[in-house]
């Protein structure tokens, strides 16, 4: 499979983590890949007649949005498939979708179900754009139009920034104290805009950053990696890996079919 990354417009950079094209040539489907949860939403705009992928056990023929909240998912790209993948930063996709995110958590949803008739029109423009550079430019202009329809939520934005800066180690008490609202009110906002409770978002974020430590310090013991990542002990570290990957930390390191 060929993957090509593209520059993101400066105004979209606070919201979009990456934009790439994915082309699956050859005569066979790709191998199954286990994609780990990263609290991100990702749009896949199909520009070929071939189905996009098998996700879980379901075949998706058209453009889709994947909400990888806190569960892993198995993905297999289909032969002949071609799509543009737009991955949002954790928690930052709410500016582009009007549905409360707790209803979308851990789902793969047809883009038409979220953007209605505009999704079909957009897909048609992408198919006939001629080349991938033009397709990416067209999609970014569309996202710019959507961006202006919904305001930022300053409390959510602040919390997400603090979680990122602390690598998931800031406490929930500190977050609510700093923004001056109750834990219950913050939980409602997180469910609406992120799709998780603040506590679960912190836990998944800590796990995500632990993957960096696991990869960068493979020679260390699991206990050392666990402490580097902010876990109290190895038991909690292994528990999170089994929940979020289906494997132990050692198995994650040795498995070439896991994407993170």
Automatic annotation (TrEMBL):
Coiled coil segments of this chain: none
Domain of life of the native organism: Bacteria
UniProt KW keywords: DNA-binding, Transcription, Transcription regulation
Alphabetized GO MF terms: DNA-binding transcription factor activity; sequence-specific DNA binding
SMART domains from the UniProt entry: HTH_ARAC (SM00342)
Keyword set includes Transcription regulation: yes
InterPro entries with a match to the protein in the record: AraC_XylS_family_regulators (IPR050204), DUF6597 (IPR046532), Homeodomain-like_sf (IPR009057), HTH_AraC (IPR018060)
Domain (HTH araC/xylS-type) ranges: 153-255
PROSITE patterns with a match to the protein in the record: HTH_ARAC_FAMILY_2
UniProt-recorded name of the protein: AraC family transcriptional regulator
